Amino acid sequence: MTIDLLLFYAFAAMAIGSALLLVNIRNTARALFLLFIVLFAMAGLYLFALADFIAITQILVYVGGVLILLIFAFMLSNKELLHDLQSVSHRFITIPRWQALIISGAFLSVMLYSVISWSQTMPEWIESAQMAGTVISPSDNNIQALGFRFMTQYVLPFEIISIFLMMALIGAAHLSRKEQHT
Amino acid sequence: MADLIVHIVVPIAIFTFIAAFTLFAVYAERKIAGFVQDRLGPMETGKYGLVQTIADILKLLQKEFITPSAADKILFSIAPVVIFGAVFVGFSVIPWAPDFIPANTHTGLFFIMAVVSIDAIGILMAGWGSNNKYALLGSVRAIAQMVSYEIPVGLSLIAAVMITQTLNLNDIAYLQGINSPENIYFMGFWDVTHIGGIFAWHIFQAPHLLVVYVIFFIASLAECNRAPFDIPEAESELIGGFHTEYGGIKFAFLFLAEYAMMFLVAILGVVLFLGAWNTPLPNIGSLRLADWTTGLGWGITWTILKSFTIVGIQMWIRWTLPRFRADQLMTLCWKVLIPLAFVCLAISGLWRIMVML
């Protein structure tokens, strides 16, 4: 067993283990810090898919931004409300959660289907890419290729996303403004 | 197998360096403080107090583990590891000499920005886990400050990267000296590719990069919570901020993280703006000073010398300037540094298109 494979399984186990713990833990503060481990382990898994840019963005955006926002929201929220959240039923499956059961069942079947169908034959698009030689290797400069794509082929989605972010920024600035007392 | 040994030896070497640097830097800091405040600083232990910091660390290591009874035990004990780990991982992509770099990746700079932001989670963990009002207030202040000042740091780094056109720190270092694969122009008009030295550094390649470096330096001071931006610690109001409850080896780790962070931002500034491992001595005619002082040993020497100078300036500023008020801190960030950084970003783009092509 090579070191890479060992690391891959370590990251995967970390992600799955802490995700399971995260949904079962009763202490909300610890749950948020467990989310950090989940996101971090996911970033590690992205690295194995040769998506180094995605992995680093995941850490930068989710860990450095979204997670801190979540923790702040947790700290600023009402104590009574949190108490209600923490004192839900102990049982794993309850009647109010039947929607969750359907969703998780659907996801499980999708994953099982893909595992079964992919373990027998390689998908056609992977084989054709290998034939054509359009596969990336770990030493390729992925980030440069990504930059070129963003500025040429995918320039419209890229610009739309930047306008969305701009709108969010202006909205945030407007909301946090002091009320005018007239 | 040899690969594996390298992967183990390099982190240990970096850790040893950080620990030794911290011991040295704490001594230097106290001596500088003494000089600024017109006193002697540590003088009792050893000649000129030289072994004072070793005595301090021995004392810290022997201390009992104390966890406050109301604290969240797990978060409280993990936090110092997370904080130190975040800073420590940042050292993995820093070049020390030509091609002497632990991990030569294409995303080096971006990686540092990302892992340093994990530091904030660690601080929040420490503040929340301590279950102490002062610690929590200190960590909330620290996060507000770090999140705000990440923007000018990021923008100033982007302004520099637009000139270099790469995120690989090894390549960025190469672009600032006599080994550069591209032509270098001092302020955009004087070809210094074969002259090298101080003229080829990034801050002199374009006039606005000097301003960018000043923005980066100020914002990085705030990122590592150093005076005049030490509002999170604020001994006089918050009795130490997020590390109020920490003692013994856990406190030693927090301290190590603080000094490692200082060194990390100093060396990052050196790599991006101050020529990395390139010599400050230019070639003058047949006097090939730059050729003679480039190489592995020289590279490490220059990197460390330049970084220590920057760390020295950080300490000098800490003991010279008073602490900012919280609103002044945010005003400086959002109304001065960020607009200035945006202007520099625009100039960088124009400079790349109009002057460098």
From TrEMBL, chain A:
A Gene Ontology cellular-component term: plasma membrane
Main location: membrane
Keyword Phosphoprotein assigned: no
Transmembrane segments: 6-25, 32-49, 55-77, 98-116, 154-175
Entry membrane topology: Multi-pass membrane protein
Cellular localisation: Cell membrane
E.C. number(s) listed in UniProt: 7.1.1.-
InterPro entries per record: NADH_UbQ/plastoQ_OxRdtase_su6 (IPR001457), Nuo/plastoQ_OxRdtase_6_NuoJ (IPR042106)
Class in the EC hierarchy, top level: translocase
Record key words, sorted: Cell membrane, Membrane, NAD, Quinone, Transmembrane, Transmembrane helix, Ubiquinone
Record carries keyword Membrane: yes
Pfam families: Oxidored_q3
Catalysis: reaction(s): a quinone + NADH + 5 H(+)(in) = a quinol + NAD(+) + 4 H(+)(out)
Gene Ontology terms, MF aspect: NADH dehydrogenase (ubiquinone) activity; quinone binding
Signal sequence range: none
Entry-linked Gene3D superfamilies: NADH-ubiquinone/plastoquinone oxidoreductase chain 6, subunit NuoJ
Family classification: Belongs to the complex I subunit 6 family.
Function text: NDH-1 shuttles electrons from NADH, via FMN and iron-sulfur (Fe-S) centers, to quinones in the respiratory chain. Couples the redox reaction to proton translocation (for every two electrons transferred, four hydrogen ions are translocated across the cytoplasmic membrane), and thus conserves the redox energy in a proton gradient.
Protein name: NADH-quinone oxidoreductase subunit J
Organism this protein belongs to: Sphingobacterium deserti
Taxonomic placement: Bacteria, Pseudomonadati, Bacteroidota, Sphingobacteriia, Sphingobacteriales
TrEMBL record, chain B:
Record's keyword terms, sorted: Cell membrane, Membrane, NAD, Quinone, Translocase, Transmembrane, Transmembrane helix, Ubiquinone
EC primary class: translocase
Catalytic function, reaction form: a quinone + NADH + 5 H(+)(in) = a quinol + NAD(+) + 4 H(+)(out)
Subcellular location: Cell membrane; Membrane
GO CC entries: plasma membrane
Keyword Membrane assigned: yes
Pfam families named in the record: NADHdh (PF00146)
Taxonomic superkingdom: Bacteria
Record field: transmembrane: 6-27, 74-97, 109-128, 149-167, 198-219, 251-276, 296-317, 329-351
GO molecular function annotation: NADH dehydrogenase activity; oxidoreductase activity, acting on NAD(P)H, quinone or similar compound as acceptor; quinone binding
Membrane topology: Multi-pass membrane protein
Biological-process GO terms, alphabetical: aerobic respiration
EC number: 7.1.1.-
InterPro entries, alphabetized: NADH_UbQ_OxRdtase_su1/FPO, NADH_UbQ_OxRdtase_su1_CS
Main location: membrane
Database matches in PANTHER family: NADH DEHYDROGENASE SUBUNIT 1, NADH-UBIQUINONE OXIDOREDUCTASE CHAIN 1
Function noted in UniProt: NDH-1 shuttles electrons from NADH, via FMN and iron-sulfur (Fe-S) centers, to quinones in the respiratory chain. The immediate electron acceptor for the enzyme in this species is believed to be ubiquinone. Couples the redox reaction to proton translocation (for every two electrons transferred, four hydrogen ions are translocated across the cytoplasmic membrane), and thus conserves the redox energy in a proton gradient. This subunit may bind ubiquinone.
Subunit structure: NDH-1 is composed of 14 different subunits. Subunits NuoA, H, J, K, L, M, N constitute the membrane sector of the complex.
HAMAP family assigned to the protein according to its UniProt record, in alphabetical order: NDH1_NuoH
Similarity comment text for this entry: Belongs to the complex I subunit 1 family.
Stated name of the protein: NADH-quinone oxidoreductase subunit H
Originating species: Sphingobacterium deserti
